Amino acid sequence: MVDDATPLLHDAVLLAGGRASRLGGVDKSALVADGATLLDHALAAASGAAQVVLVGARHDARRDAQEARLGPHTIVRTREDPPFAGPVAALAAGLAAVPTGSVWTLVLACDLVHPERATALLLDGAGATAPRDGCIAVDEDGRRQPLLALYRTEALGDALDRLREASGGLEDLSMRRLLAALDLVEVPLPSVLCADIDSAEDVARLLD
Questions:
Q1: Burial class of residue 86 (count of CB atoms within 10 Å of its CB; 0-12, 13-18, 19+)
Q2: Which of 44, 110, 154, 167 could link 29 by a cystine bridge, Cβ 3.0 to 4.6 Å?
Q3: Is the dihedral of CA 195, 196, 202, 204 positive or negative?
Q4: What is the DSSP letter of 103?
Q5: Which of 133, 94, 117 is CA-nearest to residue 13?
Q6: Phi/psi of residue 102, each to 5°?
Q7: Taking a C-beta distance cutoff of 8 angstroms, is the pair 2, 8 a contact?
């Protein structure tokens, strides 16, 4: 059972490698909300993690400076193969980058607008997960948020292995198909905390 008084030991996998085709290929993690980039917000949300993996992000000096704000953590960089193979493949690459990982893995998309507050509530709800496979945010319309979730690392890895074997790979597979194999506690969150950037309308509505 998870002790509510003890910070939950976990790693974090941050997914930043989508094409953003509806936004003309813009780097969504570099967009700004509340005076900070979405990458900054994701890194802040992951600040309690033992290890942080950044999957698919573009590598430049500005981003290096942003990552430095995480403090003593080392950012492990990786990329799904082939690039743009989808979130399931990216998640598998992230787990593979930390083979001696923690019992739990926090998974965050780098286009979330308020990941700090959402993650805090998600971790607060983690006490109800044992012995289940994790907890997943659910918005006010009942939609699960697979890239705003805390997974038991072993269960997630096993599910990825089974899906890879059944499908002959992980490219372009849906997170819903992956999650079908997992027993997850749903954590209701206000929809504003689940908001992400998928379109120009989202940019106009949610960002600075």
A1: middle
A2: 110
A3: positive
A4: S
A5: 94
A6: -75, 170
A7: yes
Handedness of CA 13, 14, 20, 22 (dihedral sign): positive
Distance between CA 45 and CA 130 in Å, rounded?
Answer: 22
Taking the alpha carbons at both ends of the chain, their separation in whole angstroms is 41
* pTM summary value: 0.89
Domains of the chain: 10-206 (3.90.550.10)
At CA 144, angle to CA 141 and CA 18, rounded to 5? Answer: 115
Count CB-CB contacts under 10 A for residue 50.
13
Give the contacts of 179 (CB within 8 A, at least 6 positions apart): 136, 144, 146, 159
Phi first, then psi: what are they for 41, rounded to 5°?
A: -65, -40
SS3 label, residue 141: coil
CB 182 within 8 A of CB 159: yes
Distances (CA, A) of 40 to 50, 95, 102, 114, 125: 17, 21, 23, 11, 24
Question: In sequence order, which ranges of 60-143 are alpha helices (DSSP H)?
Answer: 61-68, 87-96, 115-124
